[in-house]
Amino acid sequence: MAYDAQPAPATVYHPAPAGMNIKVAASDLSVRYGGALALDRVAMDIPDRSVTACIGPSGCGKSTFLRCINRMNDTIETARVSGSIRIDGEEVNDRSIDPVLLRARVGMVFQKPNPFPKSIYENVAYGPRIHGLAASKDELDAIVETSLTKAGLWKEVADRLHQPGTSLSGGQQQRLVIARAIAVNPEVILMDEPCSALDPIATARIEELIDELRENYALIIVTHSMAQAARVSQMTAFFHLGALVEYGPTEEIFTNPRDQRTQDYITGRFG
Amino acid sequence: MNRPASIRTAVEARLARRHRAERRFQFYGAAAICLAVAFLALLIGSILIQSVPAMTTWRMTLQVELDRAAIDPRGDMSEASLRRGGYNAAIQQALRDQFPDVEDRAELRELFGLYSSVNAARLLNRVVQDPSLVGGTVSFTFPIDDDADLYLKGVSVRESRAPGPAPVRIQAGEGRAVTLSAEARVFDAFVDDVREAARERARILEQRAERAEAALADAIDRDIRAIYEAEARRARAQAERLRDRLDEGAPVVIGPQIPSLLVQVDGAVIRVSDVSADRRSARGEMVISAPLGEAAHSDWTLWTIETPQAGRLISDRQIAWVDALRERGMTRSGFNTELFTYADSREPELAGVLGALIGSVLTMFVTMLLAVPIGVGAAIYLEEFAPKNRITQLIEVNINNLAAVPSIVFGLLGLAVFINTFGLPRSAPLVGGIVLALMTLPTVIISSRAALKAVPPSIREAALGVGASKTQAVFHHVLPLAAPGILTGSIIGLAQALGETAPLLMIGMVAFIADAPSLGLAGFTEPSTVMPVQIFLWSSAAERAFEARTAAAILVLLTLMVSLNAAAIYLRRRFERRW
Ligand SMILES: Nc1ncnc2c1ncn2[C@@H]1O[C@H](COP(=O)(O)OP(=O)(O)OP(=O)(O)O)[C@@H](O)[C@H]1O
Ligand SMILES: [Mg+2]
Known about the structure:
The structure holds two protein chains of two kinds.
Chain A: H1 2-5, E1 12-13, E2 22-33, E3 36-47, E4 51-55, H2 62-69, E5 79-87, E6 90-91, H3 99-105, E7 106-109, H4 120-131, H5 137-150, H6 154-157, H7 170-183, E8 188-192, H8 200-213, E9 218-222, H9 226-232, E10 235-240, E11 243-249, H10 250-255, H11 260-266
Parallel strand pairs in A: 1-11, 4-9, 4-10, 7-8, 8-9
Antiparallel strand pairs in A: 2-3, 2-5, 5-6, 10-11
Helix pairs in contact in A: 4-5, 4-7, 5-7
Chain B: H1 3-55, E1 56-65, H2 68-71, H3 79-83, H4 87-98, H5 105-112, H6 120-129, E2 137-143, H7 146-153, E3 159-163, E4 168-172, E5 177-182, H8 188-218, H9 222-245, E6 252-253, E7 260-265, E8 268-275, E9 281-288, E10 296-297, E11 300-305, H10 316-327, E12 331-335, H11 338-341, H12 354-385, H13 390-402, H14 407-421, H15 429-453, H16 457-465, H17 470-498, H18 502-506, H19 531-539, H20 545-575
Antiparallel strand pairs in B: 1-2, 1-12, 3-11, 4-5, 4-10, 5-9, 6-8, 7-8, 7-11, 8-9
């Protein structure tokens, strides 16, 4: 294709902090929707047990990148993914990988809270049940409790587990879907603008939660809030027009951006 | 110039117009709804009113003597023997016993016309079940003939009674012939009425003749002229004849075209055949005899049957008999249970919707069993799994087209494929159900797809996001949310099939079937009909009693439909979940 003849967009890499395990590694990752290029040959190494923030103006391909990691793009008829993305060195786009298994390993929290229209308990128990993670009802109860506790929701819902999940407030719903994601014990958690619909207090709660989850999981979050990215993440990736412009430790991206576009974006000059 | 102020006035001026437009639109909407409700009320009201005569039925109770020799011809009391008994004759004899002076064959036929021999089967069944009845007398109740029933309900015959104005003397003649004579002009009122009616009729005939003559003047074509000429001539001649008979000096001969006159006196009923010119005497014959003696009777009744014999299906004699039976307390009106417990019959009083109802239930069962799983399955596959390409697009377009295919085409298909090729039985609920399922499929598929489409994609993403397979996502999350919509669509499709007639005519479900199909597995291949076809059949039946029964059957069908739709609404409410 004519496009392939063009040089790959250059990415500015900051030196990564030493001693970090690479969990997710993307290279030459491109996505097209029909004819339109949404992600242009992205290469990026995401460390384990840390939070990686994806920032960039609207429509630059952040969600698309996230959806590559758990192959949610499979559900979009027109999406064509090329290039490679590896989790622990294992190729995700390989034919031998079952997306169902993959999604059990890579949990996802969507931009808008989307609990099932079932009870709070059922919301959390659904994943473990279909994957057969609990041998007995007691075990399932325990999984539900620990997941809700980890998501910081247990205290609020302990006495109303059988009320519909949709009856919770927006912030509670978002924490409920986080609990649902961690109930299947994933290795990577993807969060697409998890706080976009929340007030500052609920946002602070979720951020706290993200910080706690970092101890056990690799988290990749998309956010439009520079402050949030600065607060919660260790690594930051700046996307622009489908290309990864700059990637490195959060501190360095925010204090010493090397690309003009990154500089403009984080200082609020566009986007 | 103050611009903001001018903009404001302009907006305000427009605002008034906008409000007016809105009010006008609301008024149109309300008016449209009122009109629709009024039409619906009119429709249901008129059906209700029309069905009233079918809600009750008159029954006659006779004491039937079960003579051993006649009921048990072989004399061994075996079932086979009892089944060959002369029940019909026994019932007819019981009826005859009520009116011993009826002897003439034609008259007997008239008398037995009050009773339909189909009833004998019921007496037979009773005796077979309880052979100890043989040799005794049983009280047997059966619905009276439909024409007598309509007479008793007062819907088919206009009549009036007046006390005899002056004493009358009755002289017995030969056989049952009698002569009535009085000092005063006792038949004055009757003759005046008859003359008035005849004059009116003659006037109408003359008008008709004038119209035909006027048309004749304009007509050119020879054949058409001939038709008008004949009509004018005929009407003129009839009117002339009527006017001739109106001559004051002539006696009144009571024919089939003019009201009948019966005279009730001391338990006897006399049918008057002609009234003398002086209106003081008349001749007639006893329909129900009683000893009357030579003396003058002052207590007697002039009973005018205003509907002429030609305008009714019940004869003067039958009216007299039925009236006497009612006087004797042998007829009683009650709720028309036959309408719900009997299958179709040529005799309206014995016709019911049970056969059609069972046929409808069996047919709908087949339709549901085929259309709902196949339709919902197809919808799920097309909506959730099928790749979106040319082929699926083509299929989608064709499904939408199928929904618009006239239903009779499906009937033709059923006839050609299921009956002629596969050799399935005609008139059977099985074939009817298959044909209606084919007809209903597009509706089910389209509504199910719409219901599936209405489930927000975020639910699918949520399920897939925790690692559910596509099938799990669909069956655990999408389908339960779409269920109310799918259910509503399916039930509406079934209700539509329930009211369908045309395709069933093609596969022979229009046949006259006197036995209700059995409610078991065998019933699916037995000949049967369905409710809408039954309504169609009754609506084209000649007997007047079927008119009300048609309306009643429509009510039954409507009730069925309303309960189906109510079930749809209930299930919808029950399963509806918010997200
Ligand atoms: N399902 C789709 N079909 C076609 N094009 C799509 C689809 N999803 C996204 N795109 C296109 O791909 C590009 C990247 O979209 P993406 O959703 O990844 O942006 P984003 O960075 O997440 O934006 P935002 O911050 O607004 O969420 C956009 O131009 C968008 O129009
Ligand atoms: Mg996005």
